[in-house]
Amino acid sequence: MSGNRFVIIGGDAAGMSAAGMAKRRRPDMEIEVYEMGDYTSYGACGMPYYIANYFEDLNDLVVVTPHEFRENRGLKVFMRHRVEKINPDDKTIDVKDLDTGRTRTVFYDDLLIATGAEPIIPGEFNLDMEGVFALRGLPDAASIKDFATRPDVNEALVVGTGYIGLEMIEALKEAGLTVRAIELAERVAPTFEEEISTEISEELSRNGIEVLLNVKAQKVERSESAWLSVTLSNGETLTTDMIVVGAGVRPRTKLAEAAGVELGVRKAVKVDRRQRTSIDRIWAAGDCCEAYHRLTGVNAYIPLALGANRQGKVAGSNVAGIDAEFPGVLGTAICKVFDLGVARTGLGLKEAEHAGLDALTVKITGNSKPHYYPGAAPITTLLIIEKNTEKVFGVQMIGHGSAIKRIDTWAACLAGGFTLQEINDLDLAYAPPFSPVWDPVLIAAEVAKKTLK
Amino acid sequence: MSGNRFVIIGGDAAGMSAAGMAKRRRPDMEIEVYEMGDYTSYGACGMPYYIANYFEDLNDLVVVTPHEFRENRGLKVFMRHRVEKINPDDKTIDVKDLDTGRTRTVFYDDLLIATGAEPIIPGEFNLDMEGVFALRGLPDAASIKDFATRPDVNEALVVGTGYIGLEMIEALKEAGLTVRAIELAERVAPTFEEEISTEISEELSRNGIEVLLNVKAQKVERSESAWLSVTLSNGETLTTDMIVVGAGVRPRTKLAEAAGVELGVRKAVKVDRRQRTSIDRIWAAGDCCEAYHRLTGVNAYIPLALGANRQGKVAGSNVAGIDAEFPGVLGTAICKVFDLGVARTGLGLKEAEHAGLDALTVKITGNSKPHYYPGAAPITTLLIIEKNTEKVFGVQMIGHGSAIKRIDTWAACLAGGFTLQEINDLDLAYAPPFSPVWDPVLIAAEVAKKTLK
Fold first, then answer.
1. Interface touch B54/A374, C-beta < 8 Å
2. Do residues B261 and B269 make contact, with C-beta atoms less than 8 angstroms apart?
3. Which ipTM score applies to this complex?
4. Is A344 exposed, middle or buried (0-12, 13-18, 19+ CB in 10 A)?
5. Residue A65 belongs to what H/E stretch?
6. Backbone angles phi, psi at B2, to 5 degrees
7. Residues of chain B neighbouring A60 (CB-CB closer than 8 A)
């Protein structure tokens, strides 16, 4: 039997989804959300497009304001309240009101840790230095846009070329700057297979982006000729006006760890599919915790928005006494890189091998539309296939714009455990404005099947 | 054991797919294709976009020329050769060379009927009358475009608002004409559910297209004020400069019927999933024959390009001695209507009820992208659901442009027999340029699930 007081640490996707779900399931429940920042439930993934000036009002990213939550949903949301400590034995938390500076103790029956993730900031970057930024939240988005549009700011350096790095490269370029990037790995977007990375590189080049590979920053200083001077690991020095660090994220778990909650993959909070942690009545959801992977059957750390929302709903439902289980992730993700979209679902080759599969990759190029139709453009599909079952365990795609949303068709195929033959047999939609007769999904499955023979 | 001579009647999608597949499987086979027209293997679905002037060279629609087939693929393709008669007892066909007027007899071991479909031309329309057209093949596309661009041609009337009617309405409008349409049924695109038809109507209105419903033409005459005068079944008379009949198609089966080949659904050639007809060693594929429906398990008449290509390959493989079975269709189709795309897969409500399902429809409106991202637009999804299993048996969508290619994700779900819950659990791709966090596919499944409760 669940208790009556549900306390949530963190007011973004996972936390607010949990709050909303619990309230719907059990309207009588007392639900309190403590958020250390100034915003709840905002579309963080939209920040690069605000910086790119695709829209002007940052408030458009706020899905539900704290006021709306309080008024319409019967939840208590405390903004600018930082949880300092979890006391599992007492079932309390210590909360500091950042405006008054006072700390109080709050009792819970159930506690959800939804503290999210934080950008990894290598030691050589000091976010207090003028011109050095990371994208932690809405205030950062505002600061970056303000700084990027200063008349004396012309050049930017983006650190990292993962999803956020790529989006920031495009955003700053769209904001009118000359953009360079540095990447620690030997290729851009290293979570993709090499063939896809190569095509991303080409698109960056076409858009005048210089990327330095196999390199990291060692020292950042004020410069005389520009704002900043960066000494690189290869001995070179470059100057730039601003730096945006997009070097990945890690789960924000200090609170959980200090409370004795067990951590798992990549030091994310260890959870089961009901979102339970190692401590009774303490739950976790979102980017601070692991996510069950549908293909491997084990937990991974894949901090993405849809999974966070879902985990929040699952936790909220369970807390309210209605059993729910997280269906798991496939690691489906998509990212715009100038005119292209790049997307993936399922496992990469190394992940597949690590999961014990005898896998291989096949790369196939198809066309988004018939050659005669305006806007027809190539789509590259890379499949990761288990040899003996001919089942697809991973897909990576790159091609023009929205054509890449075809990754969802692949995600459905992976969820269904379809073989190449079953995929090749699908009845997909054809008309010249949308696709060739044999859609690239069908072509990819057919070519891969022939390759395996 | 299959014989050595494979004769194919009809050189379009199904016929040429069969020829190519048989040749690959058994390079020693003698393959002859008899095509009564001037073109083989052309992209018929591209014709409206040629008329709309999206591209200029009609030859771009020809996928493989007869010359290329002869030279590179080792097939004999006879153009402008009309098969007059099939003689199953002798295993011969009588073929007339339309240029010389001579008829000869050709022996076969296996015969494929791939005679396609032909537009239904109601009796009141005489295609020999100047200004009256139907879209039977490339020469018609050329004639329609030539006529539509004459300086003295300003208005067009399209008869029928199915896929071809809708595409022709747009094409003629894009060609600069004022376009009206008449539809026999009480709503446009009557193979869609009413809610979808309504949105198609609205898009036609927004583009200045007047559609007269519940009406048919009764008489077409030369006019003095314009080119043509049309008397309608409601007693009204309207004038127009040109008429394009897009009132659906029917299987072209006179040859088959005369040979004693059994006909089935809508008088299409009856076939099994290996594409065998009722007569031994006579096969059929493409728009002249039935297609196995994956959801009902029985044959339907759904003449679409992908199925035709597939049936051709299946027939060719079987003739070459390698067993193959047609996987079946879901009736997946997509059509551009000005700024919108409209698509479907699976069964309509009546089809579902006819198949014995206790079904209902749920209509859901979602967004193609987050509200703040440029180009975000609503997507309407209508689901046909079997009540007791909560499985989706049909999906119809309408919304802006390529966002509607999401129908393929649904087609994969239908092929997998997924329940609403399984669909709602899919890990689909999210980034603001491509989708909201909860893709319209997920939203539709979730809302439908709640509606069923």
1. yes
2. yes
3. 0.96
4. buried
5. none
6. -80, 150
7. 371-372
Distance between CA atoms of residues B429 and A335, nearest Å: 9
User: Roughly how many angstroms between the first and final C-alpha of chain A, as a whole number?
Assistant: 56
User: CB distance A415–B415 less than 8 Å?
Assistant: no
Minimum distance, in Å, between the CA of residue A46 and any CA atom of chain B: 6
Residue B157, token pair as written in the block = 């009337």
Distances (CA, A) of B319 to A112, B285, B299: 64, 12, 21
Whether pLDDT at B48 is above 70 = yes
Pair A284, A112: CB distance under 8 Å: yes
3-state DSSP assignment of residue B245: strand
**DSSP codes of every residue in A217-244:** EEEEEE-SSSSEEEEETTS-EEEESEEE
Q: In terms of Cα–Cα distance, which of B46, B36, B29, B123 is closest to B77?
A: B36
- Mark yes or no for CB contact B402/A428 under 8 Å: no
The pair of three-digit structure tokens given for residue B118, joined into one six-digit string: 């032909």
Does the structure show a pLDDT above 60 at B72? no
> Where do we find the tokens 């942690």?
A277
Beta bridge partners of B293: B329
Nearest to A409 among B46, B374, B412 (CB): B412
Q: Give the separation between CA A363 and CA B256, rounded to whole angstroms.
A: 43
User: Rg of chain B's alpha carbons, rounded to an integer?
Assistant: 23
What are the structure tokens assigned to B219, written together?
Answer: 């008489």
DSSP state of A56: S
Residue B107: Cβ-neighbour burial (10 angstroms; 0-12, 13-18, 19+): middle
Residue A388 buriedness (CB in 10 A; 0-12 / 13-18 / 19+): exposed
A298–B contact, CB cutoff 8 A = no
Query: pLDDT tier at A70 (50, 70, 90 boundaries)?
Result: low
Q: Name B272's Cβ contacts closer than 8 Å, sequence gap at least 6.
A: none
Contact A431 B327 (CB under 8 A): no
In order, the DSSP letters of B369-397 are S-TTSTT--EEEEEEEEETTTTEEEEEEE
Q: For residue range B201-250, list pLDDT tens digits in order.
A: 999 999 999 999 999 999 999 987 778 999 999 999 999 999 999 999 99
**Neighboring chain B residues of A406 at a CB cutoff of 8 Å:** 405, 408
Percent of chain A with pLDDT over 70: 97
Helix (H, G, I), strand (E, B) or coil at B221: strand
As a whole number of angstroms, the distance between CA A35 and CA A16 comes to 10
Cβ atoms of A346 and A330 within 8 Å: the answer is: yes
CB contact under 8 A, A336 and B49: no
Nearest-angstrom CA–CA distance, A214 and A232: 10
Cβ-nearest to B372 among A46, A294, A406: A46
B222-249 in b/e burial notation, b at 16+ Cβ within 10 A? ebeebbbbbeeeeeeebebbbbbbbbbb
Q: How many CA atoms lie within 13 A of A212 on its CB side?
A: 19
**Chain A residues 80-99 with CB within 8 Å of chain B:** none
User: Can you tell me the distance from the alpha carbon of B401 to that of B397, in angstroms, rounded to the nearest whole number?
Assistant: 11
- Average pLDDT for B359-364: 97
B441 touches chain A (CB under 8 A): yes
**Global confidence as pTM:** 0.96
B345 touches chain A (CB under 8 A): yes
- d(C-alpha B411, C-alpha A289), whole Å: 33
Active site residue A45: yes
Pairing of strands A30-34, A5-9: parallel
Largest CA distance in chain A: 70
Cα gap A450→A448, rounded to integer Å: 5
Report residue A244 as tokens. Answer: 């945006």
The shortest C-alpha distance from A260 to chain B (Å) reads 31
In chain B, positions 170-209, which contact chain A (CB-CB < 8 Å)?
Answer: none
Looking at residue B350, its amino acid is: K
